[in-house]
Amino acid sequence: MLRAAGVGAGDEVVVPAFGNVEVAEAVSLAGAVPVFADIDPATYCLDDAEVEAVVTPRTAAVVVVHRFGRPADIAGLHRVGQRYGLLVLEQGESETPYSEVGERRQRASYLSAKLKGVRTPVGSDGHTFQQYVVRVPGNGRPDRDAFARALRGRGVECRVPVKTPVHRMPGFRRDICLPETERAADETLSLPVDAALTKRDMQRIVATCNALGGLLQPAF
């Protein structure tokens, strides 16, 4: 898409650092330079104000990645694009069958109502919950990783959705501060909401998380 739009050498393309490295790699393959902007902590997608803050005369495009089944504020990002004459491209996630989306939403709603030891997703408008991502309170990555190990040890599958932000990876390392991106990488954990999970499975996830969550206190 970038090449077809004429984006190439000498251009900059704004991309998120929270997520897969393939987006930054695609920008580089097109001959342009990836520029990282911070995310909205609620959606984990690019924040339009943060995108606007990194726009320069060389900026040609923005690649918006919808994250975890939750859409970005595409209207706000298009406004930034129109203001500066930028191409706004969207990268979606794999399609989920409608029936499965409904079941995932039911399980996500159950978790959000019952979980006490973690911070649950904020809002759910348009969310398909391809991943149900919570934040583990405490001291960031050490407590999140300990929490994940404890869950797995009790038979609850979970995973860290983004282990390393792209701006901290070799080849794309930048000496920049993206506080929301780094905080999200340190605190987030994906819990299962698959359609195959039974009511007993969901109850076990809640009971295990809540028992562990009481051991973690926010750092001051």
Q: Biggest sheet, open or closed, and with what strands and sense?
A: 4 strands, parallel
Radius of gyration: 18 Å
Q: For the terminal residues, how far apart are their CA atoms?
A: 45 Å
The structural class is: alpha/beta
CATH class of the largest domain: Alpha Beta
Number of E-state strands: 6
Please, how many domains?
Answer: 2
CATH topology grouping of the largest domain:
Aspartate Aminotransferase, domain 1
Give the overall shape.
Answer: elongated
Give unreliable regions as ranges: none
- Overall pLDDT: 92
Order of helices and strands: EHEHEHEHEHHEH
- Biggest sheet strand line-up: 2-1-3-4
Instruction: Spell out the CATH superfamily of the largest domain.
Output: Aspartate Aminotransferase, domain 1
Number of helices: 7
DSSP strand content? 5-15%
Q: Percentage of helical residues? A: 25-40%
> Oligomeric state of the chains?
single chain
CATH architecture designation of the largest domain? Alpha-Beta Complex
Overview of this protein structure:
- The protein is an alpha/beta fold.
- It folds into two domains: about 10-90, Type I PLP-dependent aspartate aminotransferase-like (Major domain) (Aspartate Aminotransferase, domain 2), CATH 3.40.640.10; about 100-215, Aspartate Aminotransferase, domain 1 (Alpha-Beta Complex).
- The chain is built from seven helices and six strands, in the order βαβαβαβαβααβα.
- The protein has helices at about 20-30, 50-55, 75-85, 100-115, 140-155, 180-185, 200-215; strands spanning about 10-15, 35, 60-65, 85-90, 130-135, 190.
- The chain has a four-stranded parallel beta sheet with strand order 2-1-3-4, with helices on both faces. The chain has a two-stranded antiparallel sheet with strand order 5-6.
- α3 links the parallel β3 (about 60-65) and β4.
- The longest helix is centred in the middle third of the chain and has 17 residues, at about 100-115.
- It starts with 11 loop residues before the first strand and ends in a 7-residue tail after the last helix.
- The relative contact order is 0.16.
- The mean pLDDT is about 90.
- Pfam families: DegT_DnrJ_EryC1.
- This is DegT/DnrJ/EryC1/StrS aminotransferase.
- Keywords: Aminotransferase, Pyridoxal phosphate, Transferase.
- It comes from Streptomyces graminofaciens.
- InterPro entries: DegT/StrS_aminotransferase, PyrdxlP-dep_Trfase, PyrdxlP-dep_Trfase_major, PyrdxlP-dep_Trfase_small.
